[in-house]
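User: Please look over both lines:
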Amino acid sequence: YRNIGRINIQDQAMAAQEILKWDFVDPDRIAVWGWSGGGTATLNLMFQYPDIYKTGIAIAAVANQLTYDNIYQERFMGLPQENMEDFVNGSPITYAKNLTGNLLIIHGTGDDNVHYQNVEMLINELVKHNRKFQVMPYPNRTHGIYEGEGTLSHLVTLYTDFLKTNCPP
């Protein structure tokens, strides 16, 4: 409660730190990806633990908890007027300035769940801090990014190629 974007992210990073101790793991090839809440986690991991995560693919992610669905967000975070600090501390946009790795952001411009303004706010924050990243908007696609002929094939090819380029086998 009131720790979305903090406890789960710390747990994941601590597990990754343990995995990095294995002699067959290449610390320069640690990648993470996710969709929706997983995309949000990807952003938080890339921004809060840039020394661990080198490549990330965030699809349909919430960049700022203050712009997400209040039925979900307030159930787990309380009200912003009562604990604004928790909303800010759990939002990827707060840590965007820390990005050092390879990041691909993918979002449908017609997403009725995680509104596209999240991407625009994040882009502005990353630009403000001169961080390099890539963005693929899918026009008029919803949260599932499946509408339109060839969309799914394009999406899968896009993120697979990004991963192969930035985290080669």
User: Anything to note?
Assistant: The chain is about 40% helix and 15% strand.
